[in-house]
Design brief:
The protein has about 80 residues and is mainly α. It has one domain. The protein contains 2 helices and no strands. Helix 1 packs antiparallel against helix 2. The longest helix is centred in the last third of the chain and has 30 residues. It is elongated and about 60 Å long.
Length: about 80
Amino acid sequence: MPEPVETATPEGVDYGWVMQVTFVTTILLGAPFVALLSTTVELSTWSARAEFAIRVGAVVWIVVALAVFAYAKRTQE
């Protein structure tokens, strides 16, 4: 009979959950937001488009990550 898989019960914030929710939320909400913002800027070359997406996407990602972490911290048992 195989050994049972060990489980863990982390105390505090579950960082795996935070990373997963941050990833999904950034894709679902952040990508349309970046696309909407890109309509207000002149992006004539591919490098300008990539730089814009990276600059704005990084800000969106950090804001979402901090919000998800704050939510997880506030609701932990």
